[in-house]
Amino acid sequence: MKHHSATPSATSLPRAPHDDSTRRMTKYFIMMAVRVVCFILMVVIAPYGWHTAVLAVGAVFLPYFAVIVANVGDDVREAPAVSPLSALPERPEPAPTATAQPAAPAPTVIEIRESRPE
Known about the structure:
Distance between the termini: 70 Å
Number of helices: 2
């Protein structure tokens, strides 16, 4: 008897498109807020030094990474389709019988004829 481990399940469904886009927009917003903080700290902190260069790199390159992170969805690969019939147990085949069964009787044919009264 075959056992199939990939049975369809409601809990294995992908995230709803609205929830996925909301989550990606939140990630983008957070990364852009970090960029603004980097830019403000780069201008405000004096004297300028190595930390200014690090903040400048963050302010310049964070938008690129924010767009990449925002455009990547949750499920990059799709799960293979599973036939609902594959989850059903297989029917056992009937055991062959040693005795021959008698042939079924021929069906009875009933004819109905209508005649007109004369």
